[in-house]
Amino acid sequence: MVAMWPVRQFEREMMMHKTASCLLAAVAALSLAAPAHAQDASAEEMAKKLSNPIASLISVPFQYTSDPYGGTNDGATANRLNIQPVIPFSLNEKWNLITRNIVPVIWQNDFPSAAMNESGLGDITSSLFFSPKEPTAGGLIWGAGPVFLLPTATEDVLGGEKWGIGPTGVALKQTGPWTVGALADHIWSVAGNGDRANINATYLQPFLSYNTKTATTFAVNTESTYDWRTRQWSVPLNFMVAQVFKLGPQLLQVQAGARYWATAPDNGPEGWGWRVQLTLLFPK
Asked: What is the pTM (predicted TM-score) of this model?
């Protein structure tokens, strides 16, 4: 019999490298065009709105992240393309409903265990934020609501095979070019495969960004997760630079940067990874 594993591995790697190459090419090419358009006042306004996770702005980010692994998984890499549409709805004169979804497409390569080297769709996370249209008297912007975990993974190792639900919230303040705030959620599993581990996890994302008049954004955040079942933290630090500009009538943001794993479970991600993102903007 002809072994199929090398063929499948080659196909995964080719798909991963093709996706990464396309995104990096887009970052390089579109960044060259940015200075010619970045002076547009609407671009500056969009850059500031993008620093607010619950801004009343339709956006569709395509975020590609690559993380190296250590320990017994040294040399392995997990690559993830998150498709993250954000769609606001006006409920009345005072309130918005902001929907934020994360649809992950995952490639895992070079793990010692062949069962880990899979690719496909991961579990989808869907968040709903009920948010006042106007900031508070002190300038605080906030939103809160439920978050849902959907067991959509196409391979066992790419998801938890559990339905989950919990609360989510975000609060931030924008002062001049600065945005500072935090987003958090907690998910408990409520149904699903009884043979899989239950989910009881807290997610914390404090963020800080600075927007220039040329619609360039410098940002730092963490995407920390605490697993209450195993009592372990996963803490990647992200350092990003982004640029808003126009291509014809279309507003876009391109983003690139590095991420460092401050802590992670044994044999999990470690060291430096990288991220690129392309966001399509659709102002109302």
From this structure: 0.84
